[in-house]
Amino acid sequence: MKTYRVATVAVLLLAGLAAMASPYYDKDKGDAGRLLMGRVTDHADNPLPSAVVYLSNPRNRAVKTYIVGPDGVYRFPALSPNIDYEVYAQYNGQKSDTKTVSQFDNRQQVNINLKIDAK
């Protein structure tokens, strides 16, 4: 019986440590990462439907994409707070400036609007 209790305690401790080591774990909030969202617009603040937003993780070179709807809004949930991400948009062959989501920015929700000189 004593061996069973020790094994149970060990499993629970390892599970807790694994959760804290996860890149999506926020020790202050206990939730699953942060949210990046924003709008893709032209220089007159008109939304650019069907623009493609690219989110890259320079650590592992993974790239996620999002095709914006009629309102120009994009969103990337559950981002690791320990990584600097790069985000930019493309529309009809034109590209926005590349913006960085810094790991030192501790906001849970980061809002970055991207502008494209659409012609």
Topology of this structure?
Blueprint: H1 2-21, E1 34-41, E2 52-57, E3 62-67, E4 73-79, E5 85-91, E6 94-95, E7 99-101, E8 109-111, E9 114-115
Parallel strand pairs: 1-8, 1-9
Antiparallel strand pairs: 1-4, 2-3, 2-5, 5-6, 5-7
Distance between the termini: 74 Å
Strand residues, percent: 35-45%
Helix residue percentage: 10-25%
Our count of helices gives 1
Helix/sheet category: alpha+beta
User: What is the level 1 CATH name of one domain?
Assistant: Mainly Beta
Overall mean pLDDT: 83
Rg estimate, integer Å: 19 Å
Number of strands: 9
pLDDT < 50 stretches? 6-12, 17-29
The biggest beta sheet is recorded as: 5 strands, antiparallel
CATH topology tier name of one domain: Immunoglobulin-like
CATH architecture name of one domain: Sandwich
What general outline do the C-alpha atoms trace? globular
CATH superfamily of one domain: Carboxypeptidase-like, regulatory domain
- What is the N-to-C order of secondary-structure elements (H for helix, E for strand)? HEEEEEEEEE
Primary descriptors:
single chain; 119 residues; alpha+beta; Immunoglobulin-like; five-stranded antiparallel sheet; four-stranded mixed sheet; 1 helix; 9 strands; 37% strand
Write a brief structural summary.
It is built from one helix and nine strands, in the order αβββββββββ.
Describe this structure in words.
With 119 residues, the chain is of the alpha+beta class. The chain is built from 1 helix and 9 strands; from the N terminus they run H-E-E-E-E-E-E-E-E-E. The chain has a domain at 33-115: Carboxypeptidase-like, regulatory domain (Immunoglobulin-like, Sandwich). The strands form 2 sheets. Strands 2, 3, 5, 6 and 7 form a 5-stranded antiparallel beta sheet that branches. Strands 1, 4, 8 and 9 form a 4-stranded mixed beta sheet that branches.
